Amino acid sequence: MCDICGCNITPGNEHLLAEGGKLSVTPEGERAVEVLKGLLSENDHQAAHNREHFDAHGVLAINLMSSPGAGKTALLEATIEALAGEFAIGVVEGDLETENDAERIRAKGVPAVQIATGSACHLDAHMVHDALHHMSLDGLDLLFIENVGNLVCPASFDLGHHRNVTLLSVTEGDDKPAKYPVMFRAADLMLLTKTDLLAVLDDFDPDRAEQHLRHLANPAPALRLSARKGQGMTAWFDWLRAELTAQRERVRNHQTAHPALQPDGARLHAHDHHHHGHHHHHG
Length: 283
What we know:
CATH superfamily: P-loop containing nucleotide triphosphate hydrolases
Distance between the termini: 18 Å
Helix content: 25-40%
Largest sheet: 7 strands, parallel
Number of helices: 10
Strand content: 5-15%
Strand order of the largest sheet: 3-2-4-1-5-6-7
CATH class: Alpha Beta
Structural class: alpha/beta
Number of strands: 7
Radius of gyration: 19 Å
Oligomer: single chain
Number of domains: 1
């Protein structure tokens, strides 16, 4: 998928990167895995810089992750409509179906910067940093980063944000948390979206979805809502308010917060794939 993070390392080609493999040495003589590791550590360095930037401006940065089409943009629009009078909100858009998505957000009076992700399967800290050059954080309270629709790679990349919110639409399987453990362990909050459709779906059990989350030993709250119908949104807004209050308290005390990133998943992008690949088989 993306050569940079090594998502293109598969069980079928990983032998090429292994010790002595055809691609294990780059022309400069470096092992290819060292290159990948170097890219990951560069990402973390940039992420730390981004986080300092957010904290200096008192901004709470939230990374929205999900499968394609789980309703991230609809959630954002409904949230902006409800809270724009209460908080100054900004959006960094990495998962746009069309240019219209960003325009709809801007039409609500909220700055939105579009990141051209190309074929990348996740955002990284450098892309977010570049986007911040096009947006002033002065006076902002909340920054939403809408990640690429993908349930694997985004879970492992620090963007400098504070919290991960993972959406699971009721139009998907309620066993997704079991199938994508890295992503759902990374969630600081799980949102079950499109719950107004439960009435016409007989195969999605919200309780079962939450049980799968608990089996991953993730204590994150699991909220159920429908952005389109405005159901269950109050609990989501309350979570945001509480997180923003906590962020302001941290800023006062010169502390910061890190999302529940899963370094596990970084192995999907690095040489350990060979040894740990069996832990991450998504079936």
